[in-house]
């Protein structure tokens, strides 16, 4: 089964589960009249919309590149988690408002045992499906699936809190525990919604993925050849699951066009083999200068002006800068 088909099936599973759980939770609210259960049910409605949008975004992200989208359609997944986060924020604010009203005007809660059984069932289902989505999303490099799975985790946590509130009401007879749980859940949901929106903006604005940059640099360092004098201006962008990487590599200025081409192909090949996703890599070759002789390890260089001093290890600190490497004076 292809990666795209696997993603689509997982997203469809999430949507189907979300629709079923919303029905169960609203039935639990019908039985109990609990503000905390209503909070949980309202938050679950968001699951339906976000799962549907995640399914659509995953479908779009799997489409091939075209003239209008030369880097593919992968960024739609960041829009998906932004949409999800915005809806969660909206729901959290409304839940917070409703909880305050419930504090001011408390009402009786009934059939607590039936409500807790139904909520407990939905929590277990959400945890199981959320675990599958997060694990599969990380394996398939799908931020939409991971975001959807984390939302299900959040939904399960909300359900557990609602159950705790019902237990406290059952034991103490104080219905304010119900409104209090809803208030806490509203604040928690707002914070998590903000985090999802923040992650979406980071992806859409091409914020650097430091972990992936470190992997690329580490692989270049491990496979380093004498002709690769230094790498700089290295950038890594994510388009959904796929990567776009570009950098400058300083090489001997007297290399023929064919020799330089072969070296660049070797660099691109080893990076593409390092990742199990589609990688588009462009390497710009810079001709060396005599200032680079002291850090160049190429043996029998016919134009060397200075003896080799020592290697400069490639790190995030020096490889991402748009400047050639030099040894400090003295």
TrEMBL record:
The lineage of its organism: Bacteria, Pseudomonadati, Bacteroidota, Cytophagia, Cytophagales. One of its GO terms (biological process) is intracellular zinc ion homeostasis. The keyword Methyltransferase does not apply. Residues 12-205 form the Cation efflux protein transmembrane domain. It is found in: Membrane. One of its GO terms (molecular function) is ferrous iron transmembrane transporter activity. Belongs to the cation diffusion facilitator (CDF) transporter (TC 2.A.4) family. It is a multi-pass membrane protein. Its main location: membrane. GO terms for cellular component: plasma membrane. This is Cation diffusion facilitator family transporter. The chain crosses the membrane at residues 12-29, 41-60, 81-104, 116-134, 154-173, 179-197. PANTHER family: MITOCHONDRIAL METAL TRANSPORTER 1-RELATED (PTHR43840). InterPro entries: Cation_efflux (IPR002524), Cation_efflux_CTD (IPR027470), Cation_efflux_CTD_sf (IPR036837), Cation_efflux_TM (IPR058533), Cation_efflux_TMD_sf (IPR027469), CDF_Transporter (IPR050291). Keywords: Membrane, Transmembrane, Transmembrane helix, Transport. Residues 215-288 form the Cation efflux protein cytoplasmic domain. It comes from Hymenobacter daecheongensis DSM 21074.
